[in-house]
Amino acid sequence: METRISVLVVDDVPLIRDAVKILLTRGDYARIVGEAATGEEAVRLADNANPDVILMDIDMPIMNSIEAAKIIRKKHKNTKIIMLTSSNNERFIFHSFAAGADGYILKDKFPATIQAAITTVCLGSVWLDPGIARRILELVVENATTKKGLAIPLTREEVKTLHEVASCSVAHCLVDPEFISNLRRLEQN
After folding, report:
1. What is the pTM of this model?
2. Domain total in the chain
3. SS3 at position 76
4. Per-residue pLDDT tens digits for 117-140
């Protein structure tokens, strides 16, 4: 019985793909089931390899990862998708989660966080890079409390939870996937 996590690595930079493969294949943590340089290749390989996790850069040629994530999520409900990117652009982050991403890792920190992120999403939680988590949660709280940009206001319980998460003092906080689903609901309206 295979206990290692199967991973598809998607990045248009071969050096990044190689670094990810080296980090993940040390020991018995993960096995690489494919690699792609475009979102289009990622969709095709996801269909063939049916990986547990897909690590994808956002900005790629032919089809970006946000579009690829939408397609993959429709076909492969159990595959976890983690964006591995240099971009801390809030718009990309929200669009990634709205497209079905389960995690978001910044490339400058990925050697230290990649296994924790993969383990977290495989357990059913959401991973948001510690480098951007507080800022994103502050934006959501600000929008929720002022109702800027939201078609449907958050409930008092949702606002309270956001305040608690935004004030988290550890390097990262695990967030209930149901809560993220509710945020995706707001993004789609």
Report:
1. 0.75
2. 1
3. coil
4. 999 999 999 998 887 887 777 777
Sheet strand arrangement including 53-56: 30-36, 5-10, 53-56, 80-85, 103-106, 127-128
Query: Which residue in this structure is represented by tokens 């906080």?
Result: 173
**Domain limits for position 172:** 5-188
Output Rg (C-alpha) for the chain, integer angstroms: 16
**CA-CA distance, 63 to 23, in Å (whole number)?**
26
Q: What is the pLDDT of residues 8-29, one digit of tens each?
A: 999 999 999 999 999 998 878 8
CB atoms inside a 10 Å sphere around CB 2: 7
Are 181 and 73 in contact, with CB atoms under 8 Å apart? no
| Length of the chain as a residue count | 189
Tell the residue number behind the tokens 């003092």, with chain if given. 169
Rounded-to-integer distance, Cα 159 and Cα 145, Å: 7
CATH of the domain at 144: 3.40.50.2300
* 65 to 107, 134, 147, 151: CA distances (angstroms): 15, 24, 29, 26
CA atoms of 82 and 102, how far apart (whole Å)? 6
Place of tokens 């032919």: 62
Six token digits for residue 131: 């480098």
